[in-house]
Amino acid sequence: MDNSPKAPGSEPAATVRFRPLFWAFAFAGLLLTGFLIQANLSSRAEILLLREETEIARLEIKSLQQSIEAEHILAEHGASRGTFPANLSELKFFVLSAPVGTSSQAAGLAVWDAAKQEGRLIVTGMPPLATDRSFQLWMASPGRPSPQSTAVFTAPPAARGAPVAFHPVSAIEEPTALTVTVEPRDGSSQPEGTAVLQWP
């Protein structure tokens, strides 16, 4: 047996040979871990992107359905019945829909004449109302802290009602939002009830 003293700092040859293999495996493990993390992040990003694209497509389909519905409504209650002026280019049209996340089939078309400060609202598929409740249309505009009440009305449940005339108390050049809420029968000074239609 060789009991001669070893030189300082010397290591067994097997240990010296093993070190490069150890670091090689460690480096490979790090690379694999990084690849798996990157692949996982990429997959999650693709899933989120797919969900966003699906939601955008759903909203586009809903918007197209609303546009078609608006055309049908306008055709039934058109200028031939005297509901709207003959020069439709002077009017602005707003398609109202039920709030996102509800199963309501309610829809509406608001026709606004800024020059005359009046409009017509046609609704369909509205939910039933209690006898002490009415629908109320609100218009928001730039520079005003709260929306204006422009009409209080009722409508036959699930059916297409007659056009509702509406007009603001103060002049509105360009509406920024339209909302129909359920309020007490004679209306409210501010929207407090559940929204059943809205634009945008």
In short:
This protein has 200 residues and is of the alpha+beta class. It has 2 domains: 14-76; 86-199.
Query: Order of strands in the sheet with the most strands?
Result: 1-2-3-6
Beta-strand level of the residues, as a percent range? 25-35%
Distance between the termini: 92 Å
Q: Cα-atom Rg, whole angstroms?
A: 33 Å
Uncertain stretches of 5 or more adjacent residues: none
SS summary, helix count: 1
Q: Provide the structure class.
A: alpha+beta
Quick one: overall form? elongated
SSE pattern:
HEEEEEEEE
Describe this structure in words.
The model has no long low-confidence stretch (mean pLDDT 78). The radius of gyration is 33 Å and the shape is elongated. With 200 residues, it is α+β, with helices and mostly antiparallel strands. It has a 4-stranded antiparallel β-sheet with strand order 1-2-3-6, covered by helices on one side. A 4-stranded antiparallel β-sheet has the order 5-4-7-8, with no helix packed on it. The protein has one helix at 13-76; strands at 92-97, 107-113, 118-124, 133-140, 148-153, 164-166, 177-184, 195-199. It has 2 domains: 14-76; 86-199.
What key attributes describe this structure?
four-stranded antiparallel β-sheet; 200 residues; elongated; 32% helix; alpha+beta; 2 domains
